[in-house]
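hiii, so i know i said id send this last week but things got crazy w the move. better late than never?? heres the sequnce for the chain we talked about at the cafe, plus the structure i predicted for it. fair warning i was half asleep when i ran it
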Amino acid sequence: MLMWLRMAPALHLIFLLIIHRVSSADWGVNYSPTQFCALQNSTMTISCTFTYLTPGYQIRKVFWNIDQVKQNDSFTDLSNNSEYSQRLQYLGDKQQNCTVRLSHVTKKDEHEYYFRFITNVTGGMWIGNPGVRLSVTDLQLESPERVTERDSVNLTCKSSCNLTDTPTFIWYRNSQTLTNIGDELYIRSVSRKEAGNYSCGVQGQTYISPAVYLNVRYAPDTPVISINRSAVIMEGDSVTLICSSDSNPPALNFSWLKGETFVGSGRFFNISKISSDDSKKYKCRATNDLGEKYSDPVTLDVQYPPRNVSVSINRSAVIMSGDSVTLSCSSDSNPPALNFSWFKGNKSLNTGRIFNISKISSDDSGEYKCRARNDHGEKYSDPVTLDVQCE
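okay and structure toks below
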């Protein structure tokens, strides 16, 4: 009898252990997914369900934990962690749903996450192990270092892990949204207008990859010659011609031609004291690594007042009284002289390039000269003497 009394408490303990025993078939936590790849600064939602089918148990507490961290031999509640309390939202209940949402994820959130539930029965508790492994990724843009205009170009948006939430990739150029979607941006024949800073992101998310500059190279466009003077170019002026061309890389080699003769190099071509001999057609050539191009010719119109004014007579023989005599005035000037005046001695006679005496007489004998005039000045010819002889 004494022996039975001693054994009774032991048998009673064994019976309690059998009743309170937790079976993995009846108790458990199910995560979906078990591996999670989230984008920086995004929000992730872990779908979670749990079961506890042993009769008589009631859920007293549910919470999430990371890396099975314990304090005083108890798993810690993640919602009490200051780094998570404002970002962690429990979406479940105390029956079956243990779904949780974590917002604004960063690389510091890369942990293994576990769900824990505790019942009203001593020892009636469970942690879903293994948990959910979270990886956090940024986006990186892969682009060729440099391309040439009309090349085919492929840009790729990459992450360090495959994003769990099926992403729709979107693209930006110079912060402007493009219509293209997908993790690759294909440009069949790139133009210089498509150069710029490219970045990619995921639709519905705020994170955008670091920008990568797409450098589109091209040969020089037709150069343009400009002149440092907007007014009339006068003989003796200093004139500078400037050659400009759009190219990438910028043209560093410039050559100058006067007619077909090479006359200088460099983007600037200076003529310190221009003369009428410089009234020619000029063109420049711009060259970079991808090719060369010539400008359209530019003519320098060097203007000057009349010079080399002279008088010619239509008769080379002796002038007889009664003859018809014509005097012609010629001048070298730019613009051409249009104003001519005639003088006999100091007496003004007539105007026009031609001075005609229909029936000359001895009274017409004497020194004649003409004056040529344009917008820039005037000049007299040397005198010509008419010696009218009588029969």
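btw Residues 1-23 have pLDDT under 50 and may be disordered. thought thatd interest u
miss u guys!!
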